[in-house]
């Protein structure tokens, strides 16, 4: 089982978008049973809240299945459970390392690194641009899947 955890600031926009996009990519690839995929936040601000309406609209538009869920925060114990902890931006990386106590196993990566880009995915909570976020998330998830399906 390959365990992938996506992380953003509040777990209502980018990380759940990546969670549902990645689940659909692995399902289409016939590998759903090989993966455990989830998402969480580094902050406590949105704990208990559902996916942002802009993320839901974009996923619906693109035909990506999703479900209601409550935002949760990353815990120290998550580091041991997950094989890959995928951050949406560099501030998330710092937050993940603060919560988990570091990254001795090299599990923490930026999503777009897998697509050959060392840059953050803009937070649509601030930009309002869910289209750009979706394009980045899709590119990153496709590249991540290409790497992980070889495992």
Task: Offer a concise description of the structure.
By secondary structure, the chain is an alpha/beta fold. The protein has 6 helices and 4 strands. Strand 3, helix 4 and strand 4 form a beta-alpha-beta unit.
How would you characterize this protein structure?
By secondary structure, the protein is of the alpha/beta class. It has a single domain, classed as Response regulator (Rossmann fold, 3-Layer(aba) Sandwich), CATH 3.40.50.2300. Helix content is 41%, strand content 14%. It contains 6 helices and 4 strands. Strands 2-1-3-4 form a 4-stranded parallel beta sheet, with helices on both faces. Strand 3, helix 4 and strand 4 form a beta-alpha-beta unit. It is globular. The termini are close together. 44% of the residues are buried. The mean pLDDT is 97.
Sequence-ordered SSE layout with sheet pairings:
Layout: E1 2-8, H1 14-28, E2 35-41, H2 53-61, H3 78-81, E3 84-87, H4 90-100, E4 108-110, H5 124-127, H6 130-148
Parallel strand pairs: 1-2, 1-3, 3-4
Helix pairs in contact: 1-6
């Amino acid at each position: 089982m390959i365990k992938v955890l996506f992380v953003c600031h509040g777990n209502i926009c980018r990380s759940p978008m990546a969670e549902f996009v990645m689940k659909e990519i692995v399902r289409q690839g016939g590998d759903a049973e090989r993966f455990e995929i989830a998402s969480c936040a580094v902050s406590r601000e949105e704990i208990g809240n559902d996916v942002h309406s802009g993320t839901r609209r974009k996923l619906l538009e693109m035909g990506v299945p999703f479900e209601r869920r409550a935002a949760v925060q990353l815990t120290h114990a998550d580091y041991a459970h997950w094989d890959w902890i995928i951050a949406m931006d560099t501030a998330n990386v710092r937050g993940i390392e603060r919560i988990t106590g570091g990254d001795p196993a090299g599990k923490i990566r930026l999503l777009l690194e897998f697509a050959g880009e060392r840059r953050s995915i803009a937070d649509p909570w601030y930009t309002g641009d869910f289209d750009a976020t979706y394009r980045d998330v899709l590119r990153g998830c496709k590249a991540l899947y290409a790497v992980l399906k070889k495992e």
